[in-house]
Fold this protein.
Amino acid sequence: MARKQDTEHRRHRIKTVRTAVGYQARAFRGSNAVGDTMSGPTEAAAILGVRDLLDARAAELRARRGPGGFPCAEEVREALVMIRMNKAQEAMLQAHVAAPDFTLTATQLAQAAGYEDYAVANRQYGQLAHDLAMEMDWRPVEETNGVTTWTFTLADDADKDARKRGEDVPGPWRWRLRSEIIQALGS
């Protein structure tokens, strides 16, 4: 009878099974298989093969990160598959993608999810951004009162150039979806 073992590496669970000729191992994120199945004469060898694959993929994606170290569209796409969004988060992200110039205010994001209060939308969209950032092993540098503003994982200040020039920007804050997010979503 085959003996099954599990181990963890890079937020992945590596499952192994003993076969008639050695061991096989494969990485999973939740129920999603990631990468190839590796074989080895020992369990440790099979696991090492999977770890090497995961490490090589992570290094490849890190080498393709853009300005400020932000993940490329392919890394974003892979991470989006791995995280779970609730219906409100999905609605906000879909509205953001469909918005003119990919730009919305927090109030507009709230309305897209059926919320009356933008504070609830901020929490939901911020949680989505946090989950995505954690999956990509990336952290935005922007903070508010010493607290990371996770929404910068998904979007930037649409008026940042005007603010840098010292111009007065009337009206509410506007979020412009990052180009890597837009590309990852195929828009």
Remarks:
- The longest helix spans residues 43-63.
- The radius of gyration is 20 Å.
- The chain has two domains: 4-63, 75-184.
- The longest strand covers residues 32-40.
